[in-house]
Amino acid sequence: MTDSVLVAMSGGVDSSVAAALLLEAGYDVTGVTLRLWGGESDQGCCSAADVDDARRVAQQLGIAHYVFNLADEFTAGVVEPYVAAHADGLTPNPCIECNRTIKFDQLLRRTDAMGFDLLATGHHARIGPGGQLRRGADPGKDQSYVLHMLSAAVLQRVRFPVGDMTKDEVRRRADGLGLRSADKPDSQEVCFIASTTSRGGFLADRGLTLTPGRVVEAGSGTEVGRVEGVELVTVGQRKGLGLAGGSEPRYVTSVDVNSATVTVGPRRDLLVDHVTVTSWSWVTGPMTGAVQVQTSAHGVPVDGWLEPTGVVRLAQPTRRVAPGQSVVAYRGDQVVGGGPAL
Amino acid sequence: MPSVYLDHAATTPVRPSVAEAMWPWIGGGRFGNASGAHQVARQARAAVDDAREIVAAGLGCRPADVVFTSGGTEADNTAIAGAALGGALVACSAIEHHAVLEPVLAHGGTTVAVDAQGVLDLDRLPANVRLVSVMSVNNEVGTIQPIAELRAAVGPDVVVHTDAVQAVAWLDVADVVAEADLVSVSAHKLGGPQGVGALVVRPGTDLAPLLRGGGQELDRRSGTHDVAGIIGFAEAVRVTVAERAETVARVGVLRDRLVDGLVDAIDGCAETVSRPLKVAGNAHLSIEGIDSESLLVLLDRAGVCASIGASCASGAVEASHVLAAMGRPARGALRLTLGWCSTDDDVDVALDVIPAAVAQLRRQP
Lengths: 342, 365
Known about the structure:
A: seven-stranded antiparallel β-sheet; B: alpha/beta
């Protein structure tokens, strides 16, 4: 019997082509769009216009399309942790939490419960034998970083049909199929914060009281500037600190929410020789030894040595990772695992 | 794959006689602007006037009381915006359709609580209310509201509007029309075309028009008449009223068999509103331990068209304000609604498919 696949369709070009490819490959394909955010939003997987786009693509492909309302789950699993992380002075990545708690948990559960064999998305990543997670074919669009916390058990029930393609190939394919989403721009920024709202304004609306803080020089402790909200400051940040210009560039080296203090220093103060991850998640199981670590979605991987304690020794001094930001370990193009930096 | 349609409260198929009555005006060469002064206009005008008499007879009002609109939503908006004059207090039940709820809230109005069966709590009506809107029959759970008691409670001076969109197919709305000042009806819930309906405006009711323009409908609703739609609407009202007693009896038996069968076959399945309190076509259920959206997908894939109740334009399901107001859980809600063309076969397939789908969703991985 033909395998049935539920495709998460955001209305964007990647998931549209993913659905088309699965259909061509002979799967029994059904589309679903998640309604995740009831609040103001103008982009990403949240807006009503994107639901319309996804529905129209499904009509073009001749497949059934449904909309699941997971707004409460999204608020609880993504938005509230995002606000809480900021309150703690951490740098959260809501895309990772959305993948973890919504797409590959809530939606995957429903996929299973409804008896579909597989769940597919438009992510740029590849799934190898035994549920290995590998980088997508397009280095500029690779999304394995935001999928690093998926286990092989989950990945074996998932398909990423565009993972073998470059973005240009995806667009050409969409164009060739006459899909209306062929020219849609990629989504950017945090999807649940409208472009007309600032991050600070959003957090304030969600009940976070911003704490005005001092900016002090490392070592001397001299106050050199002030910030409106220490919760909005990220390690490595250079701008928006109210610093006098002229001197050597200074970067945020640490943020202490409790004492409302942001410490800045020269670039060399940011450099570290290791990074600590306290709660690793592994794709196929715990590993140690030589790895490359990546600390942002499209960051440059750095060579390191993963110790059994969860610490990664870095081969060269590297800019410090903001606490809360995800550290992902690769071996070649394969994801080993990852977790938030301490 | 046979398609079993159990969503008649959303819309119901166009009746053959309706299509036949409309055809001359769509593809048969007849046309005309009913407001003109020549023979072509006159034939359109005559058709609209005939239709108005048929609708009035079916609803139990005077022909002059019938204001044709583009449907139930326009009728509701016209009633609220047109009768809510000055800063007078407006109230509606907490389980109104959004076409009433939104205009009432936009006018700074308030909602009135209902009980667990969805029946309006007359004791909770605000004392100083000037316009009150309570639906004759609820679209989700099917509860019939006590419009006569509402009138008795508020007295003759308060403007009473009722959205009777879900009522005409099942009840003799003459009783409701006799008590209310403003009544909304819609064609497509009766086997008429979509996009046409009426607001019944009883004599002596002050109403400002929502749509201003050429002054059609005695200045109560401007815009060129949708002649074909109005003719179809009238035929739908005529057939519905003529066959109503028979339909209610026949569909009631089907509904009872459907609900009894499902409650029997599915553990943790209960009927939301008890039968004497609701219309014959409604089978709203609550099923424990499943998520309604997934159930709808499985039913759709098996050829059964059902609904949860409240859908927004995106197709996403909103948490039902109706169930919330009744103090009922939204999770596991399933709305099955039967109509004039429902059959025993529909019920047989539903009794086969729905328990199997629920069992699938409850299966442990």
